[in-house]
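As noted in the main text, all predictions were made from sequence alone. Below is one such record, for Protein arginine methyltransferase NDUFAF7.
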Amino acid sequence: MVLLPARRALLAAALGPAGRRRLPPHHASAAARLSSGVGGEPETEGRIGPTAMLRHLLLKLRATGPVTVAEYMREALTNPGQGYYTRRGGIGESGDFITSPEISQVFGELIGIWYISEWMATGKPKAFQLVELGPGRGTLTDDILRVFKQLASLLSKCDVSIHLVEVSPKLSEMQALMLTGGKVQSNPKDDSAYMKGVSKTGIPIFWYRDIQDVPPGYSFYLAHEFFDALPIHKFQRTERGWREVLVDIDPEIPDQLRFVLSPSSTPATENFIQPEETRDHVEVCPEAGVIIQRLACRIEKDGGAALVADYGHDGTKTDTFRGFRNHKLHDVLKDPGTADLTADVDFSYLRKMTQGRTATLGPIKQQEFLKNMGIDLRLQVLLQNSRDTATREQLLHSYDMLMNPKKMGDCFNFFALLPHHRVVHPDKKRKPESKSSLPPVAGFGELLLM
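Prediction:
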């Protein structure tokens, strides 16, 4: 991608000369979450008896028999009473895993620049909604809002609003505190948003439990480490055909769980395994497919774009289901409700589920996307304006965490949905004499300084 003078000025104006957030002194624990599969030894802990969630699941399994991995994940992560995200949700150094926005403010700043770039490329519409799915603690949105504030003069004639899709009461409280200082109010039950407030920079913010509750309109969607936590179905190829992997009680240890194979094909096996599948083990996330379809329909109808950033692959990996607790690999069937459960996103499946309603770009590695977005330029500015050695070391360490192929650089991927008219397809080459120009999509093409 060629960095035009106007875009270079945009980058400089938005990011400014110095950083804001004090970076944590180390991020070695984050590397635990970068495993590409379930290989490696989960942490071992002394047993203290079954958790409330495990007791709930044991009762359920005794009554109904084995459940799908998807049902197990749904209960363990989002059960209203004992689910991991509804009662714990340990993001950050003191939690169970750390994310890119927590490592460096530069990550969120460049995401903010991406949305502004797309807004400008599509003619600066008079209004846009920024919709984030699963906003965590609100750190990423906070960094994006800071970019919007830096570009307030550019956005002065644009009606901007923030819409957060969050099912966790605990996390929504964290988000409200970070983004509004806690100045929010609950909405009536008949209103689609269950909470609303105003950011510290004066932008309205709304909270929803489902993407369908977000009002229609020109919108930019953001899903950072969202799809990897959605429930998956697991399937194994056998001599008798495909069988679904289920969760059941271990008959030898009554308060422990184990994986078993379905004795025959299940409805999920019939619906989700493609005839051309060549792998012997497959993970499918139907909820991700449904959400991508909804995003594609909205973008097709109202315009905008969606940016997905997550651990994932392009239809090549097999068994990636894993758990994390205290920044270490954790047995996915042990102490459910106390650990984060995740599986790599299959971007080939997301692409297919758009059903051609939008164009798609990626997936590309995080290191490539951030380099194309100008992270090296941003780092140079921060280093030049850092007067103490400790800050410089923190900046370099955070940059290494984000960009090093052995850390987050290659494990993380970026994937985008855009209207078809926004992307020039290779088979529709523009005539050399044509004066019409379509701005390149930031991040997905090489950055060249002019």
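The radius of gyration is 22 Å. Confidence is low (pLDDT under 50) at residues 18-48, 92-96. These features were considered when defining construct boundaries for the mutagenesis experiments described in Section 2.9.
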